[in-house]
Amino acid sequence: MTIDFEVIHKDIAGRVGKLRVNGRTVRTPALLPVINPHLPLVTPREMQEMGVEALITNAYIFRRSTEFCDRALAEGLHRILDFDGTIMTDSGSFQLSVYGEVEVTNRETLEFQQAIGSDIIVPLDIPTPPDAGRERTVRELAITMDRIREAQRLFPDANLAGPLQGGTFPDLREEAGRAIRDLGFSFCPIGAVVPLMENYRYQDLVEVVLAAKRGLSPATAIHLFGAGHPSMFALAVAMGCDLFDSAAYALFAREGRYITPHGSFKISEIAELPCPCPVCRSMTAEELRRSEDRERLLALHNLYVTLAEIARIRQAIQDGTLWELVDERCRSHPRLLAGYRRLLDHAADLVRHDTVSKRRFFYCGSESCRRTEVLRYHEVVPRIPVGERILVSFDGKAAPGFDTVLNFKPPFGPYPVELAETFPIGQSEIPDWDEEMVRSGCAGIRALMAANPESQLAVRCGDAWAPLVLEEVPGAEVCHERV
Amino acid sequence: MTIDFEVIHKDIAGRVGKLRVNGRTVRTPALLPVINPHLPLVTPREMQEMGVEALITNAYIFRRSTEFCDRALAEGLHRILDFDGTIMTDSGSFQLSVYGEVEVTNRETLEFQQAIGSDIIVPLDIPTPPDAGRERTVRELAITMDRIREAQRLFPDANLAGPLQGGTFPDLREEAGRAIRDLGFSFCPIGAVVPLMENYRYQDLVEVVLAAKRGLSPATAIHLFGAGHPSMFALAVAMGCDLFDSAAYALFAREGRYITPHGSFKISEIAELPCPCPVCRSMTAEELRRSEDRERLLALHNLYVTLAEIARIRQAIQDGTLWELVDERCRSHPRLLAGYRRLLDHAADLVRHDTVSKRRFFYCGSESCRRTEVLRYHEVVPRIPVGERILVSFDGKAAPGFDTVLNFKPPFGPYPVELAETFPIGQSEIPDWDEEMVRSGCAGIRALMAANPESQLAVRCGDAWAPLVLEEVPGAEVCHERV
Fold first, then answer.
1. What pLDDT is stored for residue B100 in this prediction?
2. What DSSP character marks residue B91?
3. CB interface of A with B, residues 420-439, below 8 Å
4. Which residues of chain A make contact with B430, given a CB cutoff of 8 A?
5. B244 DSSP β-pair partners
6. Between 20 and 30 A from B149 (CA), which of A111, B15, B258, B282?
7. DSSP type of residue A359
8. From CA B190, how far away is CA B223, in angstroms rounded?
9. b or e along B285-298 (b: 16 or more beta carbons within 10 Å of the residue's beta carbon)?
10. DSSP symbols for A120-143
11. Distance CA A452, CA A161 (A)
């Protein structure tokens, strides 16, 4: 297998990387637009001019098409689609998820994908739907794994992807991840997640993807198969997904739906085009609605905003501001917010993926208290050298009789003056202190006390914070009368 | 004065409206790009093609320009700028704020603005900077008001704007608002706020604008003079601002800065162009950086995203989703978040501006508990008809022995089944219940108890919520064992 994946930048569990296949490079995170050769709303050539480096098409459709099958075999996909970038093919597994059966074997689809010149080929995995019983999920996962092994055996030199199934059972997803890792795959599509996304089940999506990640090698490029809407890309990337494929730009256009990174609108219902893309800055909503070219114009708009979101995510990773972007996007729908909060439940696991130092930390609301940077700081606190009598001073003023005086910055906690300029203390911006962030800072004080059980600790805080400090830091002396 | 302003849609204190001047109409909220005739990076004609309906230019610059003064007097502004829309002129007040003096009198600038065919003319107001002493602020406000009255006396038929000053003293801003209201102005620029925005003092900005609004008539179109960056437009509109003017698209371009609605980047520091505009989808960040046309391309990009943000705000007002947009934008910087929280401090005042029923309520985080819709619901709760024994049921299940059984939906509170389909109960989407929203819902229970002191109230909730309910609703019986 000659799919090569290199990680260049990291943030949370997300990365900017390079996927190299057959001499071509795809920058990740990447969106692979889905091309249906029968309905070319936007041509692959146009997409290439918009910056698309890879796309995905369905080998099963080509194979069954009287119009395209022979041409594809004779000319190859790149020529027939007029696209110089990387082309991935799906096996027919999507049709399996929709129709329950397909007229092709694993071997046949793999042979066909290679014969038409696909750059990344996928075995015929079984897309077990969410909430299928455990027995069925186990049985179908076993078939998928058999087919993956068969693919490796039959085509040892092919650019094979290793699709990951396991339904909504985290342990099965993790097990599948370990198996795919052990088989040496560098490219793994996580399958059968579309129904979760269609039903806004982002909490379940987080559990499924994180479970898969636990099993997989961190060096593997992860493709979230069938995802999806740009509003969830940032969340998915934060979990470690690197590639998306989406027919949404075209499907939504057909239904008259206008995509934005913060949700979709029916074009019949909007009076304004809230977007800077070439389509939206060249006409009014009314003109778009009435255009004979409406479906194509909507598809172009949908694609522009989707590609811009991918660019924004890449930039955020390089800036170390992916948490801020996840926060922004996930507040656009309460179910995404639920997914974000679920991801924060796993912050202790994410800490080991995340970078130690970032450009900045912007406090975006109480959820920020649970970010990896705060957890990591609380892990650092016990290493602060202290004497027998410690003062944590909320207002930065000292008091007599202490061996160690530490400052305090919520949501992090106590810090010595030596850390004042370092990340995150020096590079964090917070609004006026609020209860949530001071509680989080108090967790830092508790970490300090736990690491120094012989020391005595006092907190110098204003009267307003004294009750909260007394509640959050039992055993500390609160010298609030001094402030 | 023949400036006419009509409000079409409302949300919070924001509105979509139509400003009619000299037979032309400007949809609001609107951005008036600032045109410097000496530095036409983007031409007014190009702006018109991008959807710009009004612009602002500086009469003082025209008056002192050997190149443009005579031409402007001979041909008029519309012809010289090649722009068919509405043109507003500044008086020289901006130069006063920068240089401390100008070589023009109030009468002279007003005469000149009229002579060159400006559609909206502004007296020579005194831009008192923030934090100026009270004495100076009072004195300068008196001069501004004298000049406004002089303008009305000298030019009773002119399309006069009534600029509002008063520094950072809310009472003076409110007083100025009342005076301008009493003089009958339908168009009011709020002045001298640029230094607040430049220094991210959004809390102060909220206080200044809300104070001005308290004094002004709700029928007056409000122009936030010199604003600014698209990241703060939603916040400003929520307070009731209708027009912005901004040189930022050009000034930032000159400094190599790339505007987004969530903050700005130095073009030298970005690897990706995270935007769907025609500039960003036609080249890479590297190509933009190296382009000979860089300044103009950046100005175009900056203008595209700024206009798109205005369109998004108008759409949000029509959808009744302006709070969600304010929430999204204000989390992009902790100082904006502080401004948003300050605005929420004034929610009780905003309720009387806000619409009663909206399309939806999306919970975006704990700040959502303080939104106008929640406050308004708590005002409605006392009107729920109840019997002597009331049960508020968290799980929707009844229990024997009660006259009235109410359901519970946080962050709103108790509701009878008759309200289940009405706004906000039926149209609100929330993630898994969190502490903040249940506390807010408990405030609704307290409102019910206060309105029905003769009734006995019990709350049926799970064990997990019982301690919080006991704390928040003293006097209620908690039957948590039943769940």
1. 82
2. -
3. 429-432, 436
4. 334
5. B31, B224
6. B15
7. S
8. 6
9. beebeeeeeebbbb
10. BB------PPTT--HHHHHHHHHH
11. 51
CA distance A471 to A466: 9
- Is A279 in contact with A305 (CB distance < 8 Å)? no
CA distance A188 to chain B (A): 26
Q: How far is B234 from chain A (nearest CA, A)?
A: 13
Which amino acid would we find at residue A318? Q
Closest alpha carbon to B304 in B52, B45, B5, B53: B52
List the one residue out of A338, A334, A207 whose CA is nearest residue A262.
A334
Q: Which entry of A4, A11, A90, A125 is annotated as an active-site residue?
A: A90
A386's tokens: 């202290």
DSSP string, B456-476: EEEEE--TTTHHHHHHHSTT-
Q: Is B349 a catalytic residue?
A: no
| Sole residue written with tokens 């509002």 | B164
pLDDT of A351 above 50:
yes
What's the rounded mean pLDDT across residues A244-270? 95
Q: What is the pLDDT of residues B241-289, one digit of tens each?
A: 999 998 999 999 999 999 999 999 999 999 999 999 999 999 999 999 9
Alpha-helix runs per DSSP H in A65-105? 69-75, 77-81, 93-99
- pTM summary value: 0.95
Name the pLDDT band for A215 (thresholds 50, 70, 90): very high
Chain A CB contacts of B274 under 8 Å are 308-309, 311-312, 314-315
- pLDDT per residue as tens digits for the range A20-62: 999 999 999 999 999 998 888 999 999 999 999 999 999 989 9
- Chain A residues with CB inside 8 Å of B51's CB? 281, 284
Question: One of B11, B90, B242, B245 is an active-site residue; which one?
Answer: B90
Six token digits for residue A416: 């010595």
DSSP secondary structure letters along B142-167: HHHHHHHHHHHHH-TTS-B---B--T
Question: Is A479 a residue whose pLDDT tops 90?
Answer: no
- With CA atoms as reference, report the closest residue to B26 among B56, B53, B57, B55: B53
Total residue length of chain A: 483
Tokens standing for residue A138: 């186990």
ipTM of this complex prediction, to 2 decimal places: 0.94
- Which chain A residue lies closest to B27 (C-alpha atoms)? A272
Q: What is the pLDDT of residue B134?
A: 98
Strands A389-393 and A456-460: parallel
| Angstrom distance (rounded) from CA A127 to CA A129 | 6
CA distance B148 to B285: 48
Q: Which of B275, B327, B364 sits opposite A308 (nearest CB)?
A: B275
CA distance linking residue B426 with residue B417, whole number of Å = 10
H or E element at residue A389: strand A389-393
Out of B301, B311, B431, the one facing A337 most closely (by C-beta) is: B431
Residue B184, sorted as left (phi over 0), alpha (psi -120 to 50) or beta, turns out to be left
| Residue A199 contacts B, CB cutoff 8 Å | no
Residue A316 scores a pLDDT above 70: yes
Best of B315, B368, B430 to substitute, by most chain A Cβ atoms within 10 angstroms, is B315
Question: DSSP code of A191?
Answer: P
**In this complex, is the C-beta atom of A18 within 8 Å of any C-beta atom belonging to chain B?**
no
H or E element at residue B380: helix B372-380
Nearest to A164 by CA among A115, A116, A128: A128
What is the average pLDDT across B107-123? Answer: 97
CA distance A361 to A445: 20
Q: How many CB atoms lie within 10 A of CB B406?
A: 23
Nearest to B272 among A301, A314, A324 (CB): A314
Answer yes or no: do B331 and A331 touch at CB < 8 A: yes
Q: Within 13 Å of residue A281, how many CA atoms lie on the same side as its CB?
A: 28
